[in-house]
Specification:
2 domains, Pseudouridine synthase, alpha+beta, elongated, about 20% helix, two-stranded antiparallel ribbon, 7 helices, 13 strands, 11-stranded mixed β-sheet
Length: about 325
């Protein structure tokens, strides 16, 4: 099998901890010029593309500005910085739990996306940590939902990222979550929940369907008081929104969940009063590079348990 040649390094530095966009011109000669292809491929529109070309903001592998009339060259790489969207700053820090020459384990707050995606770009855990720690090569080995708080593993060296990512893909990481939800004395726990979960593109909430289970979660009751309970959740698989779907299906949806059991109106930008009461508490694994055994525990306390009155006051 012919090995694919890796792309050349970016000639542009990061901006606000965010990588430049890389575009490779596909095979074929459907376009006369590079400009024609970019206008057809990118949603920015012809006017924006022309301005970027005129201002020298689109460059080749050597960092040279690409002229607007440059002939189309299949396989050519281009780089440019996209305009960063306006983002509401999440007013909570990303705390570093552990750092060595290979990895960084951070405790992500609620409301902060893990990696740049959609309208969340510079205001993400990855971009913040790159700026905060001065490590432009930092990359995420896995992701947490934006609304979920807790431990996230980042890698320092790009050539080692695959080894750490494989830990999660091969289910070699023991993960424990903590959640706050209603207490149901009729619910028999502990139990293992198995179901088939699907998440359709463009649909906010995932759903359970008939078929072979692809999602497995262990649910345990830790303690309860005043009609609320603290649960330990241990996912055996990693489907989108798996723990949130399973808790809702048990009749005890996680406090602060805007999607389960019912999709509610979107939370206004800048409204941080009602965080989802779900926390990635524990990460445990054998380091694929050093062979060391690691167990990391988040010191974070879910707000609705320590100060329920304050949390409830923030609900609409």
């Amino acid at each position: 099998m012919r090995r694919r040649t890796p792309p050349p390094p970016s000639p542009l530095p990061q901006r606000e901890g965010v990588d430049p966009v890389r575009v490779r011109l596909p095979a074929g000669n459907a376009w006369a010029t590079v400009r024609d292809h970019l206008v057809a491929r990118l949603a920015a529109g012809a006017g924006v593309i022309d301005s970027m070309l005129d201002e020298g903001r689109i460059v080749d592998a050597a960092g040279r500005p690409v002229p607007g009339d440059m002939a189309y060259v299949p396989g050519m790489y281009l780089w440019f910085h996209r305009e960063l969207p306006h983002e509401e700053r999440v007013p909570f820090p990303v705390d570093v739990v552990y750092r060595d020459e290979h990895m960084v384990v951070a405790d992500k707050p609620h409301f902060l996306a893990t990696t740049p995606r959609g309208s969340h770009v510079a205001e993400t855990a990855l971009a913040r940590l790159r700026r905060q720690l001065g490590i432009p090569t930092l990359g995420a080995a896995h992701r947490l939902d934006r609304l979920t708080a807790g431990l996230v593993l980042f890698t320092v060296r790009p050539e080692e990222r695959g080894a750490y990512q494989s830990l999660f893909g091969d289910r070699q990481v023991a993960k424990e979550y903590e959640a706050l939800a209603p207490f149901d004395p009729a619910l028999s726990l502990p139990r293992t929940v198995r179901s088939r979960i699907v998440k359709e593109r463009g649909v906010m909430a995932a759903r359970e369907v008939e078929g072979e289970p692809n999602a497995v979660s262990r649910v345990e009751l830790l303690e309860h008081r005043d009609g609320r309970a603290r649960y330990r959740l241990t996912p055996r698989t990693g489907q989108t929104h798996q723990l949130r779907v399973h808790m809702s299906a048990l009749g005890v949806p996680i406090l602060g969940d805007p999607l389960y059991p019912v999709v509610t109106d979107p939370v206004a930008a800048g409204d941080f009063r009602r965080p989802l009461q779900l926390l990635a508490r524990v990460l445990e694994f054998t380091d694929p590079i050093t062979g060391c055994e690691h167990r990391f525990v988040s010191p974070r306390v879910l707000r609705a348990w320590s100060s329920y009155d304050e949390w409830a006051a923030g609900q609409p």
